[in-house]
Specification:
- The structure is a single chain.
- With 191 residues, the chain is an alpha/beta fold.
- The strands form 2 sheets. The protein has a 4-stranded parallel sheet, with helices on one face. Strands 1-2 form a two-stranded antiparallel sheet.
- It is globular and about 40 Å long.
Length: 191
């Protein structure tokens, strides 16, 4: 019947490898708006087949990426790989991460980055193993002030990141609007 665990992949007679606890985790992921690891409920196009083991991703066009990076007004200095570091006006990104004592291991944690701007801390949380990262901003992303969302979007694309984004004013961030998180970054918001 609707709402039963069978809808979320639990068929005790059909798949003994998937137990009720996995079905419950799947259900909770669906409720949270995430794609469950194993579930009968899917959304969007079917995943692409895995590339052959010997297939190598095409190397990035670094000169083109460098031009794109240079076309954006950056606040954060983010290492994008391939020898590209965003020319932000802020201090060195790794020094800033060390100063703020970001945990080295965020494996399995959910992270909310309030006031993400270019996403330095959001992308770092993902790199440190966070299961889900939501970057939020409104002031910096609106383009009305000094910056825009262009840096965040470009960095996310170059890094091939799964960091989510939500344009929302800091005063509107509530559990009802953004959900609950294990770790919340609120850096550079209040002085």
């Amino acid at each position: 019947h609707p709402g039963s665990f069978e809808a979320f992949g639990y068929e005790p007679d059909a798949d003994p490898a998937l137990d009720a606890s996995q079905a419950l985790r799947n259900w909770m992921q669906v409720i949270a708006g995430e794609a469950p690891a194993t579930a009968a409920v899917t959304s969007g196009p079917a995943p692409s087949p895995e590339p052959a083991a010997d297939a190598r991703p095409e190397p990035p066009d670094v000169p083109r990426l460098r031009r794109e990076v240079e076309s954006v007004r950056w606040f954060h200095r983010i290492d994008l790989g391939h020898g590209l570091i965003t020319p932000g006006v802020d201090i060195d990104g790794q020094a800033k991460i060390a100063f703020n004592d970001i945990p080295a291991d965020l494996s399995g944690k959910t992270v909310l980055d309030v006031g993400a701007w270019d996403g330095l801390f959001s992308f770092e949380a993902e790199k440190r193993g966070a299961a889900r990262v939501l970057a939020t901003d409104s002031f910096a992303w609106s383009g009305a002030g000094w910056g825009s969302k262009a840096g965040f979007e470009l960095a996310r694309r170059i890094l091939q990141s799964r960091v989510e984004d939500m344009t929302i004013d800091v005063m509107d961030v509530t559990p009802e609007r953004v959900g609950m998180f294990d770790v919340v970054f609120f850096l550079g918001i209040l002085y």
